[in-house]
Amino acid sequence: MPAHFDLLKTDTGTAARRGRLRTRHGMIETPIFMPVGTQGTVKALTPAQLHEIGAQIILGNTYHLSLRPGSELIRELGGLHAFMGWNGPILTDSGGFQAFSLAKLRDIREDGIAFSSHIDGAKHFLGPREVMQIQSDLGSDIAMVIDECPPWPCTRDECQRAVDRSLRWAKECRQIATDNGFLAAGHHVFAIAQGSTFDDLRREAAESLAALDLPGYAVGGVSVGEPEPEMLKQVGATTPFLPADKPRYTMGLGTPPQILKMIALGVDMFDCVHPTRVARNGAAFTPDGLINVRNERYRTDRAPLVEGLDNYTCRHFSRAYLRHLVMANEILASTLLSLHNLHFYLDLVAQARAHIEAGDFASWSRAWIERYEAGEAAGV
Questions:
Q1: 301 tagged catalytic
Q2: pTM for the model
Q3: Is 93 a catalytic residue?
Q4: Which domains does the chain have, with CATH numbers?
């Protein structure tokens, strides 16, 4: 399979990597954060606004889009890019995590996952063939294989079954993507390494999936309830055994310090709903921690959320005005805070790229995390 990922530099003090990933809809500079557009939209923002803040790639979700409006309709209307008006790369999650999170509505079988729709209770099934067909309909630049995400905590036997089943499904997804020309057409398929808190199963999963020679790999089954030290331990137990010449993606997390800590462990790609979710609840990210814009202290504050951060929100609006919007329940509050929070994340990974190139990522990231966590502790 032709090379599509260039590893440009590795940090000497950590396992941080600077890379470049080619896709059908453009180049992605890594490390990168990917805004989440689960249902064909990043909540409260337009594609033009996402381009303005430097988003390089966004996410859609196989599970949700297959239920509503249906992947066949999206295919008929030109694929997900045309449907949602986004001309950059799109990664689509396979639905395995939704099956995990909707445990009361699903049944994991050897050939896939049977589940009841959370919308209307209708019966559905996602196996390797269904997942790859849906993502082919969507025209995904990066398609995730279907996997089984074990809960935390789980027994070793439960975890071993999930690792074995996920490997079988990844092999089937690869074969289907080969047979239908999906890989040959330049779409990427990423496998997902599970293993819960068992280091040897993490290694087993990573090494067995690496043998499939897929275009990329993800660390799955983290941030599912375990404490942060355990989460970071799981990531660190997986990345050393994933191919060095392929992109590495940790799915569905995290906070700004967590992202820097995982970059230091050798992760290249991240996604999380956290920036937009907290924005809709009136919170904003700053270098000194997350602030609650509702607080009385901001009622007369003329300062922007972050001085010098070049996004529309910080260029034009004070904390006082943003507090007013939040307190008045104005829809614009969600847009302006989501725009700022996503730009904060995108700017953070851009800084990380620059410091990996400069060779001082370890000292810079340590100082950045210390400032952020000190602000959080002080309740800034």
A1: no
A2: 0.97
A3: yes
A4: 5-272 (3.20.20.105), 283-378 (no CATH)
